[in-house]
Amino acid sequence: MAAGLPHPHRVLLVLALLPSLLRPRAVEMAPTPAAAGSGDEGASALLGLLLRVQSEALRALGPDGFDPKLYVDLPLAADERAAAAALPGQGRAPPSRAELESYLARYFGAAGSDLVAADTPDFEPEPRGFLPRVESPEAREWALEVHALWKDLARRVAPGVEKRPDRHTLLPLPGGVVVPGSRFREVYYWDSYWVVRGLLVSKMYDAAKHVVLNLVYLVEKYGFVLNGARSYYTNRSQPPLLSSMVLEVYRATGDVEFVKGAFRSLLKEHSFWMSEIHNVAIRDNHGQVHNLSRYQARWNKPRPESATIDEELASKINSIADKEKLYHQIASTAESGWDFSSRWMRNSTDMTTLATTYIIPVDLNTFIFKMEQDIAAFAKIIGEKATSEKFLEASKARHIAIDSILWNSEMEQWLDYWLPTDGDSQQGVYQWKSDSQNRKIFASNFFPLWLNAYHSGSAKFADTAKSERVMASLQKSGLLCTAGIATSLTNTSQQWDFPNGWAPVQHLIAEGLLHSGSEEAVKLAEDIATRWVRTNYAAYKATGAMHEKYDVEACGKSGGGGEYKPQTGFGWSNGVVLSFLEEFGWPKHKEIGCSRQGEVGLAGAQSD
């Protein structure tokens, strides 16, 4: 059973007949030419109109500072056909700024106006038992300010969305939501895991449950958790962490009924990731065939939220078929959550060389292994022994596959595996080749350490000796910097590359180190957390905001790069800071601002 789970005999189990498992929605091989709507003709017509608005807005305003997502988030305030007929430009001279603004004001509401501020009944300014180990007055004052940001990010979907879905790309959800912030006006999948972690630190158990149940609702409606709660995201998912959210809520509350309510949806999500488009069979050098997973969206057009950007990138490609292949890779990279990074490119300077669907990623298979272990634990709790044993065996098989296909004993890291693009396989089974591992260093190479925090009473994913070797590899990797862990070693101007550091990266690796079994690993975990907390604090004090990402070369500097301006808010950054403060505390006299004290350990490790 996962570490920290209440023992079954301590929880009153109300055994009831569970609803029969619905057959998972069929996943067609990507890409499909259909619109990215929910299947409703009105939603498809709306999206088509919004894409034309987006295009005309670019012509009117120019590319400098242009955000294409703004226009596909606009709620329609009038008849779609009337709005379509009145659209200025449409192939003629570009509309003026005034013409565009007048048109938008007449026919549309403001982006985000179909999400309204929500009450947070379980929010308290200073919850009982909040961060008991944070003794520093400055750290505690700031932590309470971060805690209070949940009120600013809490929303509910306006009633009009469900009544008139043909006027909104926003999808209706049953419960209150917590959005990341800024341009990200809707729920996002993998962001929600760290939002839940933060809400639980804030003792906002009901809010955390609502976040999870909204995602469960999406599974029931679409067969998987969407990238985000917009009609244009129905063609892809994101890193699968729903079972981890259910687990964290259960560990905090002991609510068995909550687990039972989500359980069938977890099985459906697992089936989605086991489907033909995501599954890859590969034979190792001992003749053993393993099954691992990859990202693959069902889409071969420009992403609606970034259509003008994708079209510009593809403009250098002449063939329609080759353009569609590129669009498919772009959407599949967005499914990874790492959009964009040199990790997915054959040529790190050329985005048109994205090849995500030909990569078996370390992190995706780490998350699915965790999903399988979680489902096994949940099945045991609710009395489904056969299902528990089935998923325990599945997790064991994936553990073997990860270590057989992705582990590199020379580098002491897990490496992404690149499949041949010529489809060279025997009856759908690829032959493992050592030179197909990507030997470039990315933070994701160390994510399997996170599994050490959730072993089920049996052996850890990586035993203490192996974890120490991985830790030594991390210390020598060059990823450990002044203000945290860099995403990669290559500065490509992509946001999931150097010098950016991201909250999930810090948390996954630090939590794994913390449970790896050695004092040195615990110290390194705390050092990483300290650096990350300090850079978040310094940036907050300088700007009054929490940021989506940070530059790890300098304490207190927010990150940059990528296809949109840096964002603030920010859901997962808030959640990770609160989680680190709960786990490690902050002593009374420990400096919270930027300081070089204590940085020798990481800097020295890199030069060993």
TrEMBL record:
Any single Pfam family the record assigns to this protein: Trehalase
One MF annotation (Gene Ontology) recorded for this entry: alpha,alpha-trehalase activity
Keyword entries, A-Z: Glycosidase, Hydrolase, Signal
One biological process term in Gene Ontology: trehalose catabolic process
Lineage: superkingdom: Eukaryota
Family per record: Belongs to the glycosyl hydrolase 37 family.
Name of the featured protein: Trehalase
Organism: Panicum virgatum (Blackwell switchgrass)
Source organism phylogeny: Eukaryota, Viridiplantae, Streptophyta, Embryophyta, Tracheophyta
